[in-house]
Amino acid sequence: MSRQATSSRSLQRLCCAALAALAIGSLAACAGRSAALSDIRYDLGPQQEAASASASLPPLKVLEVSAPPTLDHDGILYRLNGDSQRSGRYAESRWTMSPARLLTQRLRTALAARATVLSGADAVPAPMLKVELTEFEQVFDTSTQSAGVLAARATLMQGGKVIAQRSFVARAPASTPDAAGGVAALRAASDDFAGQIGAWLGAQAFAGTP
Length: 210
Fold this sequence. Notes:
The chain has 3 helices and 8 strands. By secondary structure, it is an alpha/beta fold. Strands 1, 2, 3, 4, 5, 6, 7 and 8 form an 8-stranded mixed β-sheet that branches. Helix 2 (99-111) crosses helix 3. It is elongated, with a radius of gyration of 27 Å. This is ABC transporter.
């Protein structure tokens, strides 16, 4: 066997090995990008500034928002038009935490602009706000039109007694028929809900306050 033939085969093997390494690297890069795109995490984003003209509130205990088992997870839910008995979850997008925890943070931050916000564990006599979340999902009216819908019941207590209770619904249109559009719509609905709660609390007559 000639030295030239041996050298040629060696060069071919080196080229094949280089091509194989390049292919493996490309596949790994694609897999990495695919993995990143398949686990997108969302929160509710920056808080909107509260209206400066809003009246102040007395110190308020804002309890953790509660939710049924169907909402006690990090899945982003959607519901198709005409299928009111069944909801689905986006496979590749999730919340950073459960909707109830996200809404607790949102509500406390919004109310803190008008009141001293306390937790239920604070040993301070103060009115107590309890919120029960019943709906937090993207609802499709058609295949391209949807809205973020939030429904909840709020109970205001003072001195161990219920002084007010009301059900709320907030709805905001989604700009796109996907998880990102649903998240943006639910963010807007959450801010609307926080505003409704603030206005409702402002209309209450708290004992011991002017």
